[in-house]
UniProtKB/TrEMBL annotation:
Protein name in the entry: Putative mRNA 3-end processing factor
GO MF terms, alphabetically ordered: RNA endonuclease activity
InterPro entries per the UniProt record, alphabetical: MBL (IPR050698), RibonucZ/Hydroxyglut_hydro (IPR036866), Xnuc_lig_assoc (IPR026360)
NCBIfam families registered for this protein in UniProt: Xnuc_lig_assoc (TIGR04122)
Domain of life: Bacteria
Species name: Parafilimonas terrae
Annotated segments matching region Disordered: 323-346
Length: 346
């Protein structure tokens, strides 16, 4: 029997009697990171990285949380468990599980490029590696972060020259913090949508270090004059909503790995496209897998069929695994937050 099983509730370690990122309530859940598709409400006990706890509290409320530092070891029913940096978002971790000299690693979501905020990805040698494949096609190849940031800054300056507000679409947890890093040299207030602001405050209140910027929440009483030619960070649900009326004239820029494909840019009809992803690109996925020296690789959400087939063709045993992970839940969450915010603004 494999050390980690793929069940209808999530990744299950029978020997330790715990789940990793379960999508249904369980007794004991180890959470890789605080995005809503990996961290579900309803479990009795949660174990996560120290930096992930305040983010889970902000999203799931008060629960029974245990925390660990990276590379710290905990024994659960005779199974050794440790967390290792995944580089995806703040606190994101890979889960290393060891029993009877067999080691499995569930990586959750990850990226190998160090963004300066999320912690550098740490390859962990193992017998079996469970990997995502969100961008598991050769077309997805990321530019260096600083090149994307420079593009973003130039776009904002161009908008200012046209007397336009720059609205940057980015997930409230993950990309929004990286956008702040891109903007840290702008000596002005950065305005935030309520969902972005709430997560920003949760991170600040937890004592987690972020780029030094002046931030302010967009409120119903915030004057249009104050917002003129400003910089605003908002979640994906803001696109095409009535919430944007307050900022006219404005330009919209979207931060997403999906912007790598020109067809997606055309369909979204946005003014700026910034290829910024918190997931590994094609090269990063292959680099991470090679570094683990894993004998078996299980491929989950994304282009899992294509990516798994490629690994097998290259002599790496691989199998495709169906899970409920993906970005859809994150988008729903942002849309719900936006609906509430729009009601306040109208």
């Amino acid at each position: 029997m494999p050390l980690i099983e793929f069940t209808d509730k999530g990744l299950f370690c029978r020997a330790g009697n715990f789940y990793i990122d379960p999508w249904k309530p369980v007794n004991y859940a180890i959470i890789t990171h605080a995005h809503s598709d990996h961290a579900k409400w309803g479990s009795k006990n949660y174990l996560c990285h120290t930096l992930t706890k305040p983010l889970l509290q902000a999203r799931l409320g008060n629960n029974h949380y245990e925390t660990m530092e990276w590379n710290e070891t905990k024994t659960i029913n005779g199974v050794k468990v440790s967390l290792h940096p995944a580089g995806h978002i703040i606190g994101s971790s890979q889960v290393r599980v060891e029993c009877n000299n067999e080691v499995w690693v569930a990586s959750g979501d990850y990226k190998v490029a160090n963004d300066g905020i999320s912690g550098a990805f740490e390859p962990v040698k193992c017998n079996a590696f469970i990997t995502e494949s969100t961008f598991g096609l050769p077309i997805y190849c990321w530019k260096h972060q600083e090149a994307v940031f420079e593009n973003m800054r130039n776009w904002i300056l161009a908008n200012k020259a046209l007397n336009k507000t720059s609205i940057i679409i980015a997930y409230s947890l993950g990309k929004a913090q990286r956008v702040l890093k891109a903007l840290e040299d702008f000596d002005e207030t950065i305005f935030m949508h309520g969902a972005t602001w709430n997560m920003h405050q949760a991170i600040i209140n937890a004592g987690i270090s972020l780029p030094k910027i002046k931030a302010e929440r967009v409120m119903p009483e915030t004057s249009k004059e104050k917002l003129k030619e400003s910089i605003v960070i908002a979640p994906p649900g803001a696109e095409g909503s009535s919430w944007l009326k307050k900022f006219s004239p404005y330009a919209i820029g979207v931060c997403s790995g999906w912007m790598q494909v020109r067809g997606n840019v055309r369909r979204k009809n946005v003014d700026g496209a910034f290829v910024l992803s918190d997931h590994a690109d094609w090269t990063g996925l292959l680099q991470a897998i090679k570094a683990t020296k894993a004998e078996k690789v299980y491929v989950t959400h994304g282009y899992q069929a294509v990516f798994s087939r490629y690994l097998n063709e290259k002599g790496i045993w691989s199998a495709e695994v169906k899970t409920e992970y993906g970005e859809e839940e994150e988008e729903k969450e942002n849309a719900a937050g936006l609906a509430e915010e729009s009601g306040k603004m109208d």
